[in-house]
Write a structure and sequence with these properties.
Strand content: 35-45%
Largest sheet: 14 strands, antiparallel
Distance between the termini: 39 Å
Number of helices: 6
CATH architecture of the largest domain: Beta Barrel
Length: about 425
Amino acid sequence: MWRNGAMHGYGTYSRPNGSKYKGGWTDGMASGPGSSTYTSGDEYYGEWKDGRFNGQGTYVWQSGKVYSGTWVEGLEHGRGRCAYANGDVYRGEWRGGTRSGTGEFTLPNGEKYFGEWKNDLRHGRGRYTMANGDVIEGEWRDGERLRGTQGTINSSEDPVESPVDSPVETEELEGDEVSPPSLLAFPYNQHQRLANATFHVIWKTRHHYHHGSAFSFRHPCIVATGYHVVSKALNKGRSIVFETEDGQRFKPVRHVIDRDHDCALFRLDRPVSGDRVVLRPGRLCRPFRGKETLLAGYPHGYDALLVHKACISGPHPPHGFYLDGSINGGNSGGPIVDAVSGDVLGIVGGHRYLSEELMSFGGTRGDRERDDPRWGKVERMLAKNANCGIGVGRHIEYVDTLYLANHRTLLNE
């Protein structure tokens, strides 16, 4: 398509040198989702703005190197994963095309560094894990450890001198005990970030408490969950409480629902604060088979917030996708995010209990066995555990549509 003599809309452009772009255009510039192949053999798939990579995208070099994550003005910037041709892998933060911020670098032999980076070098607080399991914590500057700032943790019989590429000598920490690594020593990781966005949904009938999961969405006062998680509470006029992992409790003051797409949004009585995270969808938020994700929630039978890895294993028409992760009924309504970028992709919408499969078996003998009182104990045990590797996620676009149509009402703007 053309507008005012310039390409505008969707189209394909082949350059004289053999490279090719296919995707969106705005006033003659590549914009929106698109893909490009180059004469070198390199390929890029993702978002564009003003003719440059901008947003979520994947670049595949002919050499075998692959970067997938966030781009800003043609450079890796934000969160991303880079797999190098020699087998090295970096996951974490990027700035201006360099590894800068917090990230983890893993070598093929199992050695890895997790901590702070600056201009592609280890710089700041970090933890280095050797191939034999020994762990060193300390301060790095321009890729080298500073003398006297680290000790060996869980060491083997042979003393550890230094990571392979760091010739700087070290001094062991004094004292008989060395504290193990703590999440608090490293302020950012995607699992904890997701946990800091997740809520426990609690409501009570006359004799029972009911549970589910939810998450902060787009605004510090807005929480998203599955409609089926709260439908009975809403229909019966029961009070709903949203509780954080550290015990903060919030009450909803208004809500909107979408029964057809199984989602609900609540306005909290006050905004979340502190280290709480508000999740947002990426511009390219539709999941695809093979994408690595994280999901969080409060599984039935366990009084704890758990974060799991899961891979999208296929589409679940018309509104969702299958997950191969461990999903229990209490996870319903919890968030599903891209494991690299942290963008929210979906909401946990369903699961399959193993007990339901076993109870479906027919036959006289099976009926007698199910009448045995001991079967109830087995069924309760199975009901607390995850399914046979099948869960269902709902596309976040339906939650986003509900928010965009109702956010002024929810926020009383």
